[in-house]
Design brief:
It is a single chain. 38% of the residues lie in helices and 15% in strands. The strands form 4 sheets. It has a 7-stranded mixed β-sheet. Helix 2 packs antiparallel against helix 3. It is globular, with a radius of gyration of 20 Å. The chain binds 5-S-methyl-1-O-phosphono-5-thio-D-ribulose. The site of 5-S-methyl-1-O-phosphono-5-thio-D-ribulose has 19 residues, from helix 2 and strand 9.
Length: 371
């Protein structure tokens, strides 16, 4: 059987993980990759919530944007967009209820609640439904536009942080599918590759849902970036064999002290990297930093259906009644992190003004604290 799925050719195709199109967001249904590239129009709030829960749209920045657009969909669906000027309480109650439904779709990535609250705030100060709807759409669109700029700034800062590291190891999917732009950790990979600074990326498969195998391998293949896929448990051997100059991964929530939640298996990589003297970097937008969460113990880690562990893409791997534990994320202690490559600079805790000034003009972002 030829080892060539229809979509693993090296012809770049445009990847818009999420885009607003005539009254609804349209996403790439990531559950179907790499076999099929299909889009899903999310024209109800239930659809937006389901898409986020089932990882049809996934990655911290992308679910934030989906949540933002979900507020607009919800205003239309509930009639909130048509509420008159005398009914601001009704509008407020619709906005509260929509925000609650969308925020609770997934708990760990802070981008989701930050984005939903931002859109809620923009809509709630308007006088009536039509202006609230317009403000919500403008704010959600701004989230998407800002995320693209943010990815570009992370890539630029990442090239500085990772200068000289030609062989990278990464985890999960942090690229064009996970963001509105080129990605966070993977955005750095694309930028280094374009600049001739990259020899190879090792991509961990990211069991149980295989975001590395299904999505990162697909993305990098589309873009012609040199990569090899490894099973998660080969990461230690790869480091011991001298195949890794630096590890760079994304983040779902960075606590005020730098403890970082990311795809389960990230912590293992950080411990291995420390043992081998390899720098371990976190890459992410300032919107993934949660200064209200003091440390990693306060981060809510999503636990998913144990069936995801017993199966792989619908195939049973284990006895149907095997007890299983399925945390979607783990928390890497700040002490294992070389630094945080963000859109507002290369940071180390304690984080300060760079992050608090979250709405600043991202085009002025530059590398911050020296390492
Ligand atoms: O469960 P997922 O696929 O949404 O997990 C995604 C990750 O852990 C990513 O590393 C993180 O969201 C950063 S994406 C730029």
């Amino acid at each position: 059987v030829p080892d060539t799925a229809p979509l693993t050719r090296r012809t770049p195709i445009p990847i818009a993980s999420i885009a607003w199109d005539a009254d609804a967001p349209v996403i790439i249904d990531q559950r179907r990759l790499p076999d099929d590239l299909v889009h899903w129009r999310l024209d109800t709030v239930d659809a937006v919530v389901e898409a986020i829960r089932t990882l049809a749209v996934r990655g911290a920045p992308a679910i934030g944007i989906a949540g933002g657009y979900g507020m607009v969909v919800g205003l239309d669906e509930t009639g909130g967009s048509e509420i008159g000027p005398g009914e601001r309480e009704a509008l407020a109650s619709i906005l509260d209820s929509l925000a609650g439904r969308l925020e609770s779709a997934r708990p760990t990535a802070v981008n989701l609640s930050m984005a939903v609250r931002r859109v809620h705030r923009a809509a709630a100060v308007q006088v009536d439904g039509p202006t609230a709807r317009a403000a919500a759409l403008a704010e959600a669109t701004a989230l998407e536009v800002e995320d693209r700029a943010s990815c570009a700034a992370i890539a630029a800062n990442g090239r500085v942080a990772l200068a000289g590291a030609r062989r990278l190891l990464t985890h999960c999917n942090t690229g064009r599918l996970a963001t509105a732009g080129d990605g966070t950790a993977l955005g750095i990979v694309y930028a280094m590759d374009a600049a001739g600074e990259l020899d190879e990326v090792l991509a961990c498969e990211a069991r149980p849902l295989l975001q590395g195998a299904r999505l990162t391998a697909w993305e990098l293949g589309q873009a012609g970036v040199p990569y090899r896929l490894i099973v998660d448990s080969a990461a230690g051997a790869a480091m011991a064999h001298g195949l890794v100059d630096a590890v760079v991964v994304g983040c779902d929530r960075v606590a005020a002290n730098g403890d970082t939640a990311n795809k389960v298996g990230t912590y293992n990589l950080a411990v291995l990297a420390r043992h081998h003297g390899i720098p371990f970097w976190i890459a992410g937008p300032h919107t993934s930093f949660d200064l209200d969460t003091p440390d990693g113990t306060a981060i809510v880690v999503e636990e998913r259906d144990p069936e995801e562990v017993r199966t792989a893409r619908g195939h049973r791997l284990a006895p149907a009644d095997a007890p299983a534990w399925n945390p979607a994320f783990d928390v890497t202690p700040a002490a294992l992190v070389a630094g945080y490559i963000t859109d507002v600079g290369i940071l180390r805790p304690p984080f300060g003004s760079e992050l608090r000034a979250g709405t600043r003009d991202l085009t002025t972002a530059s590398t911050g604290a020296s390492l």
